[in-house]
Design brief:
Aminopeptidase, seven-stranded mixed β-sheet, Alpha-Beta Plaits, 25 strands, six-stranded mixed β-sheet, alpha+beta, 29% helix, elongated
């Protein structure tokens, strides 16, 4: 299957791949959408968060039908392999096709949610499609806490029916999603001059992935595993004093790599022997989930180190904090009910910052995980901040939109699969603005979101677009 740029949804995907559009860097793609609306004579609104709403009148014969909102987010997760030189603030994505899959060399592809954006642009441009009045809602900063959607008001929703184009896998639709919260753990640090031998410890070879969709697989978290190896050295009586600790790139992606520089007067051969013991144990635990796990130990330089008390407080906090899969749903088979992802650790001049994403279908689970962190923070001289929190999207048994999608797929000999998601979806924000909304999600097959292995099935990209157009024709 080729990536045929004569197909307008393919053309627009290729065009937006040329525009850097990571979270917090959406102005260029937002302005591109505004220019597109002007060029096509469509009414639009752009707000101060770079959300864009473009409205299109109904096609002839559909003027009396209720409007439909199409929605996708314009930001992407910017992840790359360590050996790849790519500046996500200015470089276009390097797209290529392999065995019918669209990929980007060494980086995330941005299929999440580039396919939704390209679908909407192709529909807005097409003057021959049959559809009711359309309102295309392009939101910003979805990947960093649904921040664009949080800026919207009820009057920005120009309809009572909404199709979220951020997932579906061609044969599925989501019927509910988890709420969540951002946790920022501020671990204060003070530095002193160093006179001890310094070493680097690096975790590599983990798969990583989406912290909502893949958290139930209990994949290795590079940050917590690195903390574990260091703590196990301490528990064996070895002196460990950190100079720096860093890991992960996005708080909503399970971190794949982490690095620490520490100093110690323990014999390096003894250190390495203990590290290899820890590595072997963890390898056994991750045999089926992360077989590539490895630990690199090598000499390093450290002019200054974190004072022992602060180093110990941070290491104790990260080692003891809850992380990963926490609870499963009893009501819905296979659904993760609660999780926490220790996504990013960064050493700064006066603190080490840990960025977590807390997810749960129940507000009480979210409260409990925050309380756990708060109690631990008090014991380790850490300050916990929870700047953002968003609600869940509850299941609604009756959905005319879902029935229409089911009917269209059935005619293609496909049975619609209904799924509850552990990942956070903007649908929850829209429901919060208007609880009467009828919402479905839909999209093509794509894998590897939030990782450089992200890929889009081009045949599915075509088929799902046809399904979407047929659903609109029947609305």
């Amino acid at each position: 299957m080729d990536f045929d740029l004569n197909k307008r949804h393919c053309y627009f995907f290729n065009e937006i791949a040329k525009i850097p559009h990571g979270s917090f860097n959406e102005k260029a793609i937002s302005d591109y959408l505004v220019a597109f609306a002007k060029e096509n004579g469509l009414t639009y609104k752009q707000d101060d968060k770079f959300n864009v709403i473009i409205d299109k009148p109904a096609s002839p014969g559909y003027e009396d039908r209720e409007p439909v909102i199409l929605q996708a987010h314009i930001d992407m997760v910017c992840e790359k392999n360590k050996d790849v030189e790519h500046d996500f603030t200015k470089d276009p994505l390097d797209l290529y096709v392999e065995d019918g899959w669209l990929k980007a060399r060494g980086t995330t592809l941005g299929a999440d949610d580039g396919y939704g954006v390209s679908y909407m642009m192709a529909i807005l441009e097409n003057k021959d499609l049959k559809h009711p009045p359309l309102s295309c809602l392009f939101t910003s900063m979805e990947e960093v806490g649904l921040l664009g959607a949080a800026n919207l008001k009820a009057e920005d929703l120009h309809g009572k029916r909404l199709i979220n184009l951020d997932g579906g896998g061609e044969v599925r639709t989501t019927v509910s999603s988890a709420g969540g919260a951002t946790g920022l753990s501020h671990c204060p640090v003070h530095f002193e001059a160093n006179t001890k031998p310094a070493y680097a410890l690096r975790v590599r070879g983990l798969k990583g992935g989406h912290s909502g969709g893949l958290i139930h697989l209990e994949l290795g978290n590079s940050n917590t595993l690195l903390a574990r190896v260091l703590k196990e050295l301490q528990l064996q009586g070895m002196d460990i004093q950190l100079s720096s600790f860093s890991g992960g790139l996005k708080f909503n992606a399970i971190p794949r790599e982490a690095d620490a520089v520490f100093v110690s007067e323990t014999d390096p051969e003894k250190l390495e022997a203990a590290i290899r013991q820890s590595e072997a144990k963890i390898k056994g635990e991750l045999e089926f989930s992360d077989p590539g796990f490895t630990v690199i130990f090598e000499p390093a330089d450290a002019e200054k180190v974190i004072i022992q008390k602060d180093s110990d407080n941070f290491l104790n906090y990260l080692y003891l904090m809850i992380n990963g899969f926490q609870h499963r749903s009893i009501a819905i088979e296979g659904l993760t009910a609660a999780s926490l992802n220790a996504g990013v650790v960064t050493t700064k001049e006066d603190e080490i910052l840990i960025e977590d994403l807390i997810r749960s279908a129940l507000a009480s689970h979210t409260d409990d995980m925050i309380n756990h962190l708060q109690v631990l923070a008090g014991l380790c001289n850490v300050t916990l901040e929870v700047p953002d929190r968003y609600p869940g999207w509850g299941f609604t048994a009756e959905s005319p939109l879902r029935n229409t999608l089911r009917e269209v797929l059935k005619e293609r000999d496909i049975d619609l699969k209904e799924e509850a998601a552990h990942g956070g979806l903007e649908c929850s924000m829209f429901k919060g603005l208007d609880d009467s909304l009828d919402i479905i999600t839909y999209g093509p097959v794509a894998h590897g979101a939030h990782t450089p292995e992200e890929k889009l099935d081009l045949a599915s990209f075509d088929r799902a677009f046809d399904v979407l157009c047929e659903v609109l024709a029947r609305c």
